[in-house]
Design goal:
The chain has a two-stranded antiparallel ribbon with strand order 1-2. It has one domain: Cytochrome C Oxidase, Chain A (Up-down Bundle), CATH 1.20.210.10. It is built from 16 helices and two strands. The protein has helices at 2-23, 34-70, 78-100, 115-118, 123-151, 164-195, 209-243, 250-263, 279-291, 293-307, 316-339, 342-348, 352-382, 388-414, 429-459, 474-477; strands at 493-494, 515-516. It has 517 residues and is mainly alpha-helical. The chain is globular, with a radius of gyration of 23 Å. Helices cover 67% and strands 1% of the residues. Helix 2 packs antiparallel against helix 6.
Length: 517
């Protein structure tokens, strides 16, 4: 349910992105009116973050994989789990009501005051309501994941034997639990300023608009890691399977997720260097922004070490996870280090350089990892194989399209083009045309992806084994394909570390996968 609902939202948000790029293909295009352009990037950002990437990673992948990976029959609170989904759907529908009443929000996905306070119509009110509902869904889901992971592991499944995706999902759940209330407080006080005439952000009455930014980014920067850490978990599951090696530095990868989750709450104000902060106040956030790159680099070097000397098989999920995620996310991460430095950010803030960085992270990172996970677990979910050559073709379309779309944005940004603009200087037309052409390639790749998976779901070749990849985690080794309703006939007993590819087991104590039923 999460999967199919999120896919619908993905194509709506993607259509908004195509409209934005079509408008920007020419410096004086009239595809969209200025107000419609503002509405398009507001809807695009809101849908892609709150209705696609986060619910896809935590809702779809998390719900399906966490219980089966830790040896549990189900989530701890099934009814709360269902409520989380229905709240997610309701939040999306509330946002879509704004389309029906002709009051689509136009304030960007950040909804900064003072403009958001003065925005006319019900669009922003519906946006705030949708964010509240989606936030409640996230909090309930986070509680459910934390309880499930900590209390319902199979016998022998210690924390240091959990699959790395479960580690990633656990850290993400704590981020959502502690970060989402700050966002709720920000949008609630925004609504009160609009309708109860309070003065939280109204400067004329003694309010402070910067306080909104502090509250908003205290959630929204950790939210980037809500979108990235589970994606890293997916990559960590795929790498050892297709390299036929144990994951290099299991504990380093697991604990670096914890470190990212902790440091993610200490960097929020690097979004605010030009918002009126004193320069001395920005220095600590610049330092933490540099430090948080360290645990991320630990993961990347450990993945590369996993690949080194491995018997690598470049299937579709491996292409997306290795060349796709590592290659594209590294560009996004390095460009983020630049933006975390105060003197550089003062010149590049709110330019298209930021757009390029952000999309290399959440599209080149999160989106590519989601696709890798779709292909990797597709045989387990459906009992059929996808079309391999078709999948590899879609990878190259995504990889080429992503670079053609977002790399020119670094150059456009360094030339001074601000984000959220309707028109631009004619000398930037060539780079913008290239970026627009790349977005069409991404759109085509998305259509081919969905066709491949939906066609294969009904017409694909049936798998001949419950574990076609020869993987080493519980969802592959001790369940049917597709799994039964409650995952396991009998709970497994875990007696070894995960990802033991090629390692000899103790004589007479374990199966090859290190698990006994």
């Amino acid at each position: 349910m999460y999967l199919f609902t999120s896919l619908v939202f993905f194509f709506v948000g993607g259509a908004a992105a195509i409209l934005i790029r079509t408008q920007l293909a020419l410096p004086n295009s009239v595809v969209l009116e200025p107000q419609q352009f503002n509405q398009a990037f507001t809807v695009h950002g809101t849908i892609m973050i709150f209705l696609w990437i986060i619910p896809m990673l935590t809702g779809a992948f998390g719900n399906y994989l966490v219980p089966i990976m830790i040896g549990a029959y189900d989530m701890a609170f099934p009814k709360m789990n269902a409520l989380s989904y229905w709240l997610f759907l309701l939040g999306g529908l509330v946002l879509f009501v704004s389309f029906l009443v002709g009051a689509v929000p136009d304030v960007g996905w950040t909804a900064y005051p003072p403009y958001s306070i003065q925005s006319q119509g019900a669009g922003l009110d519906l946006w705030v309501t949708a964010v509240h509902i989606l936030g409640l869904s996230s909090i309930l889901a986070a509680i459910n994941f934390i309880v499930t992971t900590l209390n319902m592991r199979a016998p022998g499944m210690t924390l240091n034997r959990m699959p790395l995706f479960v580690w990633a999902n656990l850290v993400t759940s704590f981020i959502q639990l502690f970060g989402t209330p700050a966002l709720a407080g920000a949008v609630t006080t925004l609504l009160l300023d609009r309708h109860a005439h309070t003065a939280f952000y109204d400067v004329a009455n003694g309010g402070d608009p910067m306080m909104y930014q502090h509250l908003f980014w205290f959630y929204s920067h950790p939210a980037v890691y809500v979108m990235v850490i589970p994606a890293m978990g997916i990559v960590s599951e795929i790498m050892p399977v297709f390299a036929r090696k144990p994951i290099f530095g299991y504990k380093a990868i697991a604990y670096s997720s914890v470190m990212i989750g902790f440091l993610g709450f200490l960097v929020w104000a690097h979004h605010m260097f030009v918002a009126g902060m004193q320069m001395s106040s920005g220095i600590p956030f610049m330092i933490t922004s540099m430090i948080i790159a360290v645990p991320t680099a630990i993961k990347i070097f450990n993945w590369l070490a996993t690949l080194w000397g491995g018997s690598i098989k470049y299937t579709t999920p491996m292409l997306f996870a290795s060349l796709g995620f590592i290659g594209l996310f590294t560009i996004g991460g390095l460009s983020g280090v630049f933006l975390g430095a105060v003197p550089i950010d003062l010149n590049l803030h709110d330019t298209y350089f930021v757009i390029g960085h952000f999309h290399y992270v959440v599209f080149g990172g999160s989106m590519v990892a989601i696709i890798a996970g779709m292909f990797y677990w597709f045989p387990k979910v459906s009992g059929r194989m996808y079309m391999e050559k078709f999948g590899q073709f879609s990878f190259w379309l995504y990889f080429i399209g992503t670079n053609i779309t977002f790399f020119p944005m670094f150059l456009i940004g360094m030339k001074g083009m601000p984000r959220r603009v309707f028109y631009y200087q004619p000398e930037l037309e060539t780079l913008n045309r290239v970026a627009t052409a790349g977005s069409y390639l991404i759109g085509l790749a998305s259509l081919l992806l969905v066709f491949n998976l939906f066609y294969s779901m009904f017409k694909g070749k049936k798998v001949t084994s419950d574990n076609p990849w020869g993987a080493d985690t519980l969802e592959w080794t001790h369940t049917q394909t597709p799994p039964s309703e409650f995952n396991f006939e009998a709970l497994p007993h875990v007696t070894s570390e995960p990802y033991n590819f090629g390692e000899k087991t103790k004589k007479g104590s374990l199966d090859d996968d290190g698990v006994t039923a």
